[in-house]
């Protein structure tokens, strides 16, 4: 039995709840559709959230696919999945709330604050405090794409176990940022991992498939489901740090490498050129690593972030993890999904 949004969800039930989350200016109520699956057997409660940034929609599709996953219905304990947290942003195809605040900087929020603070407060009090662990689904920003990766605090061993179990090729350890959902979880002692994959306003099949598989893998790791052992499970590589390679000048950017590539210090990654100039400026890798994020927009200004490069202690292991992931995805992608 799980008590949430004024409902009692009984063991063995799968329900969709629609708690009010705010109002439009015409006073129409906005709700936040939430899938709750409670198994017949006892176990932990795991939360999956998507679209806290309203333009990051891969997670919306990841949660939709949980509806059809037979393993999701066999959970021990309860699975709560919220495909659209920032309902306002999703409607506007925007990362932000209507008052231009970033919901993922408003946590833990307050009952009497701004719209973002109130939404964050509702999520903290009525959702986060009811769960044992959470997975928050994100993508890169507009014009930036991310290799599927998990962001996790290096100081939280339970979150690190979830991060490794998820099975994205790269786990990036990153310090907690003030105001984020992940930070709010940490303050409550609830492990939260962030999945970052693909680009804003795009569905990306490998990111979606890896996201669904990742949720399943974490459910398995925390004992909520049992599935057959798969040969193709990815052993993620953990990156203790990462940095951006920035544009050396203004102009038009084109890349000669790609997301997921292993790069070595001194490699030419791409070029920035003028529209009618014969000369062009090479973008040279200042250090070695794996490209885990990449700018997609040709028009760039000097200093603009172009390549997000993760650094590893053993980069060959990371390269192997990415290669295996990409090979697995090639096998699994079916356009009819
Ligand atoms: Zn995001």
Structural notes for this entry:
- The protein has seven helices and 21 strands.
- It has helices spanning 58-66, 87-92, 115-126, 157-166, 181-187, 205-221, 315-332, and strands at 2-4, 7-9, 14-17, 20-23, 29-31, 34-38, 45-50, 78-82, 133-138, 144-152, 170-173, 192-199, 237-239, 241-246, 251-255, 262-263, 268-273, 280-284, 289-295, 299-300, 305-311.
- Helix 1 (58-66) packs across helix 6 and helix 4 (157-166) crosses helix 6.
- Bound molecules: zinc ion (ZN).
- Residues 53, 56, 138 line the site of zinc ion.
- Zinc ion binds next to loops.
Tell me the layout of helices and strands.
Blueprint: E1 2-4, E2 7-9, E3 14-17, E4 20-23, E5 29-31, E6 34-38, E7 45-50, H1 58-66, E8 78-82, H2 87-92, H3 115-126, E9 133-138, E10 144-152, H4 157-166, E11 170-173, H5 181-187, E12 192-199, H6 205-221, E13 237-239, E14 241-246, E15 251-255, E16 262-263, E17 268-273, E18 280-284, E19 289-295, E20 299-300, E21 305-311, H7 315-332
Parallel strand pairs: 7-8, 7-9, 9-12, 10-11, 11-13
Antiparallel strand pairs: 1-2, 3-6, 4-5, 6-8, 10-12, 10-19, 14-21, 15-17, 15-20, 16-19, 17-18, 19-21
Helix pairs in contact: 1-6, 4-6
The structure holds zinc ion.
């Amino acid at each position: 039995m799980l008590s949430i949004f004024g409902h009692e969800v009984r063991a063995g039930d799968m329900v969709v709840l629609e708690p009010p989350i705010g109002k439009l200016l015409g006073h129409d109520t906005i709700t936040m559709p939430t899938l709750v699956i409670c198994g017949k057997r006892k176990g932990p409660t795991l939360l999956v959230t998507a679209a806290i940034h309203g333009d990051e929609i891969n997670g919306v599709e990841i949660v939709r696919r949980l509806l059809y996953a037979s393993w999701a219905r066999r959970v021990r304990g309860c699975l709560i999945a919220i495909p659209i947290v920032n309902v306002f942003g999703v409607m506007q195809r925007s990362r932000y709330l209507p008052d231009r605040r970033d919901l993922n900087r408003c946590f833990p929020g307050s009952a009497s604050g701004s719209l973002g603070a109130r939404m964050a407060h509702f999520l903290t009090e009525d959702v986060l405090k009811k769960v044992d662990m959470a997975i928050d689904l994100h993508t890169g920003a507009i014009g930036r794409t991310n290799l599927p990766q998990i962001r996790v605090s290096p100081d939280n061993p339970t979150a690190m176990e979830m991060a490794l179990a998820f099975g994205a090729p790269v786990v990036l350890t990153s310090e907690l940022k003030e105001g984020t959902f992940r930070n709010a979880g940490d303050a409550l002692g609830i492990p939260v991992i962030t999945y970052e994959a693909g680009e804003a306003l795009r569905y990306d099949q490998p990111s979606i498939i890896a996201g669904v598989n990742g949720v399943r893998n974490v459910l398995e790791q925390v004992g909520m489901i049992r599935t057959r052992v798969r040969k193709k499970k990815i052993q993620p590589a953990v990156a203790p740090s990462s940095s951006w390679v920035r544009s050396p000048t203004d102009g038009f950017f084109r890349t000669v490498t790609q997301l997921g590539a292993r790069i070595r210090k001194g490699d030419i990654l791409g070029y920035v050129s003028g529209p009618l100039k014969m000369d062009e400026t090479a973008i040279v890798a200042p250090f070695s690593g794996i490209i885990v994020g990449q700018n997609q927009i040709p028009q760039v200004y000097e200093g603009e972030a172009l390549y997000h490069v993760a650094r590893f202690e053993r980069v060959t292991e990371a390269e192997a993890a990415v290669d295996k992931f990409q090979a697995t995805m090639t096998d699994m992608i079916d356009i009819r999904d």
